[in-house]
Amino acid sequence: MLRKTSLWVAVLVGLTVFLAACGADDPTPTATTAPPPAADATATPTSDPFQVEWDALIAAAQAEGTLEMFACCTLGGNFKEFASRFKDKFGVQVNSFTGGSRDAREKIIPERQAGIYSIDVWIGGSRGATSVLIPADMIDPIEPLLIHPEVLDDAAWLGGQGPGFADAQQKFLIPYAGDGGYSTTVAYNTDAVDPSTLTSYYDLLDPKWKGRIIARDPRFTGIGDANFYLFHPLLGEDFLRRLITEMDIVFVDDARQATDQLAKGAYDLCLFNCSQEVFAARDQGLPVNVLQHVLKEGEDIGWGANVVWAMNKPPHPAAQKLFINFLLSREGQIMFQDITGSDSLRIDIPKDSVKLDLLRHPGVEYLRFDQIVPNWLTAEIQIAGITFAKELMGEPEAKQ
């Protein structure tokens, strides 16, 4: 069709030139310009610049072969499944060492002081990063690494302003999940506790719970629930002081240990971030759960340990960039939800695999401490709960 049209155009142009020449006083032929060539319907379309960059990044990551990371808590507890799916998709092996964030810092900091740079990506809570790693200049700005259009689509994230940042400088730490769980700071033994009797956080101060509560030690970085109580506008210092000093709480360093004791009936309640381990134990049929209703003072929405950052001087820079972009993409966040049951901050993906305990529910007003507490993301504020707990309890014993 394009060729036939071009022929008719040529005929008409030639006829016009002929008639003009016949009627002119000057017999000199009039110069004509040939019509532009017809477009080639079979021409190859221009390649998508992002896809070209993405394919090159995958190839570079495959050449590196490996990604070294640390992932704690939510993703860390499901790391093998996520790493396996990532390898199946991209052909890159993902390695991670186990333990808590404090264990990771105790390993990484001496290594870096010795000139050893062994970690590409870190996933964990923001407090340790803001109080230790950022001041020690161990983290690169993350925004220059973000290239995936789905990651850069602000409207795809809760609040319509992208995933946001979890650091005061607004350039290092990106949160990707925002659970709206019902009172996940309060876990209980289902054989011993009627959850309907707990309607307010002040119920935790009832004398009947004295000596019946186990909790993670709030003096350690990475256990953030002390900040929830300390900065909650309806709770505050007086509540937290009474909880710690009057209720004869048994504090332990390990959430699994606390959950085991709760499941055995040695204690009735577990506080200060036992929820992930309690979820796992409950799914195994043990008599534990977290409260399924909102307490009178309300709940907060927080990212917990669902924060990713890029360690500087990475041993595998291409794999680092690939992993971060994939994790924050639609496919990566759907995979994250499917594996962990947590609620992604992305709002453009299905939520059918999110656990009811963690799902953000419509109609519930969740507290946003980053919006109501001045300088919430500064290192001083992030460790305020730890500082307050140490003032009440003294310094913790050195970890053996």
List the helices and strands and how they pair.
Blueprint: H1 2-22, H2 49-64, E1 66-71, H3 73-76, H4 79-90, E2 93-97, H5 101-113, E3 121-124, H6 126-133, E4 139-140, E5 174-175, E6 187-189, E7 213-216, H7 225-231, H8 236-246, E8 250-252, H9 255-264, E9 269-271, H10 275-283, E10 288-290, E11 299-300, E12 307-311, H11 317-328, H12 330-340, E13 366-367, H13 369-372, H14 379-382, H15 384-393
Parallel strand pairs: 1-2, 1-3, 7-8, 7-9, 11-13
Antiparallel strand pairs: 3-12, 4-12, 5-12, 6-9, 6-10
Helix pairs in contact: 2-11, 7-8, 7-15, 8-15, 11-12
Describe this protein's structure.
The chain is of the alpha/beta class and 400 residues long. It has two domains: 51-180 and 303-365, 3-Layer(aba) Sandwich (D-Maltodextrin-Binding Protein, domain 2); 187-300, 3-Layer(aba) Sandwich (D-Maltodextrin-Binding Protein, domain 2), CATH 3.40.190.10. Helix content is 38%, strand content 11%. It has 15 helices and 13 strands. The protein has helices at 2-22, 49-64, 73-76, 79-90, 101-113, 126-133, 225-231, 236-246, 255-264, 275-283, 317-328, 330-340, 369-372, 379-382, 384-393, and strands at 66-71, 93-97, 121-124, 139-140, 174-175, 187-189, 213-216, 250-252, 269-271, 288-290, 299-300, 307-311, 366-367. Strands 1, 2, 3, 4, 5 and 12 form a six-stranded mixed sheet that branches. Helix 7 packs across helix 8, helix 7 (225-231) crosses helix 15 (384-393) and helix 8 (236-246) packs across helix 15 (384-393). The longest helix has 21 residues, at 2-22. It is globular and about 70 Å long. The termini are far apart. The model is unreliable at 1-34 and 39-43 (pLDDT under 50).
